[in-house]
Here is the input.
Amino acid sequence: MTVMIELRRSYTPVEELPQSGDHMHSRNNGHNELNVREIRKHFFFRKDRRTVTNNAATTQVPYDLLRLHASLAKRYENVHRGQSKPSQEITALLEESYQTVADFLNAPSIRNLVFYRNTTEAINSVMYALLTEFRNGDNIVTTMMEHNSNYVPWYAMCRDILPRFGVNVECRIVSFDQESGELDLDHMDRLIDSRTKLVCCTGASNFLGYKSPISLIRELSRGSGYSQPNGASGSYLLIDGAQLVPSTPVDVQQMNVDFLAFSFHKMLAPFGTGVLYAREELLDSLPPFLYGGDMIAEGQVHPESVSYNKLPWKYTAGTPNILGNIVSAQALRLILDFALRPDRGSYFRSDKKIDKIAVKLAMGKVNSYLQWLTQEAMIRMVKIPGIKIYGPVEVEKRAPLISFNINGINPITLANKLAERGVEVRAGCHCATLAHHYLGLDPPASCRLSFYIYNDIEDVERAVDAVKCVALPIRQRTLFSYLKNYEHKLRGIRRII
Here is the structure.
């Protein structure tokens, strides 16, 4: 049952009049250019003249998705087994959302997917599903650059949970180069052995920006020789894709990993929805994370036996985040439209089939544009006195984020001062606590700029100028401000001439 065509509405944003600086928003290097001026028309923040450069934490939600969420109210009902027309329609929309995500990732089918609240819950679900398979003497290999969501669950399993059952499993941590921010693959190779059941690694660090070489890590994990209960040889590989999927073409069949987790709130959708991709044979054989209604086979609950539902519903205990899941899947369609034809969308709120060629083209443009923005920011930032930028120099190895510190300025103080200038950044450990400690940072914190598809070069310039202004000694700030005002006046005179 397809009802998406019925829900289609005008793609045009609320108002078309350009806001401050919109006439300059397409200025970039011309390579795989996004029509950022058109994209920005779909967002609230431009009206308030906000410089939104905290996108690694969460992205802004476009008008289109908020309208969609409101439009679903007229068929507001629960899903599966309902006899009413609204229940059947909303069930169809929910199931179509699974297909959209599967197509976007080039997953074999919807049976490879589980919807959760976020990346954190998705990773925890893997931990609990694998819990009873660990044997005394096994180990897990993770890295020093992980988000706490991909370290703390494994630490807790090894240190808190399994020891209560007399099972000892070691959590091994791979180091990274403190200058380049790149993962030490030789160290990883030494840590992985025939007792390594699982390798869990970030796809892109939310602190260092470093994109992990997944194909090389996959080779190391596959070659471990670990004997899995299903007869497979090699360690499972779990990738935290929270910072990878939003800005990079991801083909899970080509990536060939066992588990991939990511969140939609970093991809324009509202909070509350994440996804776990996993191999179908693993989801079929592993126990569910949660138990209850809807995850059981219809009518198959007896005092002596319970049968579980078919995939993917085996992993959907209880009422899901129905509207959130539908809107989140549509966010992927909207990203395709923004990248390919922001002036006239064809995927959003339609039943048009998503093919992997379109995804590769669209996300390739997104990746190219964000690399360019990141490079422009880094070129400007390295000139700031006293700055230390973390992670690789090459933008090809980075996610679109830049973490940094200014000598003599607390990063929290720096972020507050930037906020006073209208520049929104994030300061703290970014939940990458291990990496901050590993670098010996005191306090264990940094300031971070991060970009997404609605950012333009003016956002970069405003953000970097604000950092520069805060970083300059007090005596130099007056002169700097004067020069900037003089420069703006000259621009105005040139426009008049």
Notes: The domain at 369-496 is CATH 3.90.1150.10 (Aspartate Aminotransferase, domain 1). The first helix runs from residue 4 to 7. Residues 14-26 have pLDDT under 50 and may be disordered.
